[in-house]
């Protein structure tokens, strides 16, 4: 009976004809008289699996001496194709080289106990049939009675077989017919799933390979589940123990299907099985087939015997035959097994194989253990397996296995990190304790020196001034201290107090007693009863006219204090040992308190950061809701989501059909793009809907929309496509290597917002898991205090000079500093000294450094006109000369400067961005932008929430979050007013932090200052002007206002980073009246610190600030709330409109 098989494309020789073998079901010829051992057994052997090793990826390419067919000259090797290794969570391929011990291992092989056959009944051979018959020597074993029966019957049958085989033929044939019928029934029961089929000719086995080039996942012996009893595998039990039996005659194809009602026997007659194996061997050999399997239906989670005829293969003269294979297109459980000569007639070799339950196909080749391969004319062999698994479900299984493996690796990594963290903490604890101990010793030494100086001044009394009774005393005693008030600073005071301590005030003020007038002494003597501290070596005190906190006048012995020697029962050395221990304990306690406070603060900061990240992601998803969004809003791997799309706001408006085209992982998912879906009405207005099943290994969902299934007009978000992050994925996005080439970087070389963006953007992308580096000139004016581990790295020659390369970390970012030895950056400033020439040289040397160091970044990011030359230098000189993999991104921070450089960079870069969406539209018509607008995108800037964080800011007096913002801002306001000499009132404070340039609206700033002061507010201005005339103008204005509005206004005409933090926290309002503003960070920082921004509606100011009265709908459309005051015009009326509502 022929069974159809799905065509397969071979692994290494696509399009070659398949070798097909179908099962031989005709009645076998009569026995030939070949002597054989006949052994009765109740179960067939479950052979033990040997360990498996990785299949090499180039079996047929390693200098083969011969192959199964000649290969024309010049033909590429098309044998056993390579595939990368994938490791499952439970099983790993053993990547050891095959040695002799591997060759001698066998999956379920049967051993020959007597190496030489015997021809007499008196010496019966105890041979085990290679394949299906188990002798008493197998490990499963038989009981003692069975063994005796086996030996006896084996001897009798062997003797009779030598004399004549005709006696048993009829009974054997009869029994064989029964088993053949049962086997045929099993074959016929599920023809679609069978591994046996016929394409042409008789008795051919389908061979081929899987199409996909994927991994082979190895397994080890202990991972293999035990197979079913071989008798069950042969006879094919059904649930009701009734089997339809089909028999096929090879001559006339006559069929019959008798019902077998009786239960299938549990015992299998080995002679019957042996006869069937010989039939299969004869039939396959006669048709030229090299191999067959038994049972003839290969099922998952079972054992099979695979037979291979060496004589009709390229291995005919080889002493060893091995099989290398794997399952499911070479993607699962690779193995290598050694075949052994079977007892079938001819040159048939055999081995046992276990078929895993996840297998739906078996792929394999034969070889001699070295370089000679039988690989089915470069097509490899494969056998279909009857299984619940198919290619699709196997893909899901692999994803689940990958998830388990990732979870295991993550657990291992977490444990490794935990142990490393514990070791780090132990080391830190040891180092901290040593530091504390050193500090304690230092404090003790310092106190000892001071005490020795004090002891030199101490005495038992001072004539006619003070003395102690009794004359002999020691630490711990109660004594009376007398003081003569006459002719002293307190002679006119009615109250006298003693403020005391001991050992040079070692514990501060620790003794307070009020003196009383002595009526027993002549003169103006006063006294107080004092308990001397037990550890005192000297008593220290002064006299005052009141208790601590109330005293106004003191007698401190002419600023020397009073000191009395105190005899003590402990030695001075012991005292200092105890003192050191006491200081050590105090310092340890203080340290642990600080660490606990830092730990709690870090936990809160992490929580706030996570909440902010979640809020930001939600705002991002909602920001495009007028075009597209998902239900649920957050897309999770392994779930089904609905994509809702509103074509009325896109280029597909009015189209009769909209098609949804989707894939995952930035269009690189192994499953490829999903079939296009025609979107249907969502029932909520103009939105259309499509449903998507998100794979477990998806980390990004990518999609576009089109007017037809074939394409036509696309909405692909202006060439950027739509992308929505996927959470809970088992896969992670591969990291990119990104290099920023810039001339500014906060906080080490900051002039304006460019420096802030370079740092904050790099940190944000680094937090996403990418590898980010920055290349910066090594100015002689760098703020090196913010560079960690700065050290010289290397040098290279370029441009006629040596360029030294330094390396360090800035805000945890790796930074390379280039220092040309021609002194180009030793000019004391960032800008202002032949900038075009200096920065052009820097850009070229930065690319040369990347080339010479062998770096190959994925993204080279240059900023503004100052590093714009990177774009064209890379494309013209380096894209095909050492840096082939990069793409250039160019960001415009301000189009006001260097338009020529910007235009040239726009022409050469791959993508161009600017720092807000509104600003991108405002400059769209500019001559540098318009020709390249198709690759120009507005991406709004952000601030670094770790650097600008009122909860951790070291420049403000009280750290705060939204929970204690009033307390924190009140403390900051008070500190700001006190620092700048402003009146300590609760009047509104308007802060202005800016560069004083025309762009920043200096005429509006002046007007806003006067308007605020007129309305009884306070003003603080921090900033400087690069133009000396503007700087001088504001200096004169400051002098006038400081005199006229003393205590209500303060100008700080300089750059002061700590003061800026205090102004952001202490001000009630922050004014940003720019005439144009690409983005602006000032308003973002203000909102981070709880100050209300007052801005002009332009560029990024419009994108980030929503007026409390005028922008409620606009804010709601983006999932936000109104957050400030804004105005339209560039005149005083606009400023007044905003200020009058706030002050």
From TrEMBL:
Residues 399-439, 587-614 form a coiled coil. Its EC number is 2.4.1.21. One of its GO terms (molecular function) is alpha-1,4-glucan glucosyltransferase (ADP-glucose donor) activity. Residues 89-103 have a biased composition (Basic and acidic residues). It catalyses: [(1->4)-alpha-D-glucosyl](n) + ADP-alpha-D-glucose = [(1->4)-alpha-D-glucosyl](n+1) + ADP + H(+). Pfam families: CBM53, Glyco_trans_1_4, Glyco_transf_5. One of its GO terms (biological process) is amylopectin biosynthetic process. Belongs to the glycosyltransferase 1 family. Bacterial/plant glycogen synthase subfamily. This is starch synthase. It comes from Eragrostis curvula. The lineage of its organism: Eukaryota, Viridiplantae, Streptophyta, Embryophyta, Tracheophyta.
